[in-house]
Design brief:
Blueprint (H helix, E strand, L loop, with lengths): L17 E6 L2 H13 L7 E4 L2 H7 L8 H12 L3 H14 L3 E6 L3 H13 L3 E6 L4 E3 L10 H11 L3 H5 L2 E8 L5 E2 L2 H14 L5 E4 L3 E6 L2 E11 L13 E12 L2 E11 L2 H4 L10
Parallel strand pairs: 6-12
Antiparallel strand pairs: 1-3, 1-4, 2-3, 4-5, 6-7, 8-10, 9-10, 10-11, 11-12
Helix pairs in contact: 2-4
């Protein structure tokens, strides 16, 4: 992946007013950049550091950037400032092949949004470089859009139609794999309650790692591959073989939670299962 700053050779002395995190996966790093741009951050406010160019720009000794850079590095190293430790960590991340993303923020709300996006795409060691100090920004512990698929599967496996319906808006839409459409939370609850009552035995629904497309800080599309195993049912036409579907959820932030406004369940034919990408979504 080409860094956003590949044409810059400027020294990163102290990344003031930047939220920083390291992402291991190239695809997720690219998705994080896209989400940041979609959230309103300008391209010139985002640095994606990767490869030898990034090591050069971070330059822990300052030797590659002249007298002032050497003085700056000597000062923060001599006083054992925490900032130097984190800069060292960034260099180690880059040398390990990870992608270090730095986002310039001008307001506190931007700091929270940038950190949320980095956490959403798997960033570690997310922190903020203020004017005088570095501060860790841990994951908020709040629900993430990607959680919706696992919560759906958990409610199904508990045979809890109320918990399943609580994931949806009052006026949510749900289209099942046969094309039936339910137009509100109560009809979604009733339909799943009826189906769950007909399932016997140990049938379990497993959700694989979902794909998340953040449309804005408040709205996301989540795709998850789900497999229903041991599909024993009171319905004689229902096969007992495992069945796999792709479920797409359109979700939005609602306080500390994410709620589903629309869901669409699509049956995955067995021969198509072998054409799926790394995340399980058919290509």
């Amino acid at each position: 992946m080409k860094t956003l700053s590949a044409d810059r050779r400027d020294f990163i002395g102290y990344p003031t007013n930047r939220v920083v995190g390291a992402v291991a996966d190239a695809t997720k790093a690219g998705d994080a950049i896209s989400a940041l741009l979609g959230a309103g951050f300008h391209r010139e406010d985002i640095d994606l550091l990767h490869g030898e160019d990034a090591v050069h720009r971070l330059d822990l000794t300052g030797e590659e950037h002249g007298f002032l850079a050497r003085v700056q590095r000597t000062v923060i190293r001599s006083f054992e400032l925490e900032e130097f430790k984190h800069l060292t960590d960034h260099v180690e991340d880059v040398r390990a092949g990870r992608f270090v993303i730095m986002v310039r923020v001008r307001r506190r709300d931007q700091r929270i949004i940038a950190a949320d996006i980095l956490h959403l795409y798997g960033a570690v060691f997310v922190g903020f470089y203020g004017r005088w100090a570095w501060a860790d920004i841990p994951a908020s512990g709040q629900m993430l859009p990607s959680d919706i698929a696992g919560l759906f599967a958990r409610a199904w496996n508990a045979r809890d139609a109320d918990a399943l319906a609580s994931l949806f808006d009052e006026d949510a839409e749900f289209v099942n794999e046969t094309g039936l459409c339910w137009h509100d939370r109560e009809s979604i609850r009733q339909a799943h309650a009826s189906r769950l009552q007909r399932i016997v035995g140990t049938s379990m629904l497993a959700a694989e790692e979902p794909n998340v497309k953040l449309l804005s800080p408040e709205v996301a599309v989540v795709y998850a591959r789900m497999t229903l195993s041991d599909g024993t049912s009171a319905e004689p036409v229902t096969s007992s073989a495992p069945r796999t579907t792709i479920v797409s959820f359109v979700v939005h932030r609602a306080g500390d939670r994410w709620l589903c406004a629309s869901a669409h369940n699509t049956y995955l034919l067995p021969e198509e299962a072998n054409l799926s990408g790394p995340s399980g979504v058919t290509i």
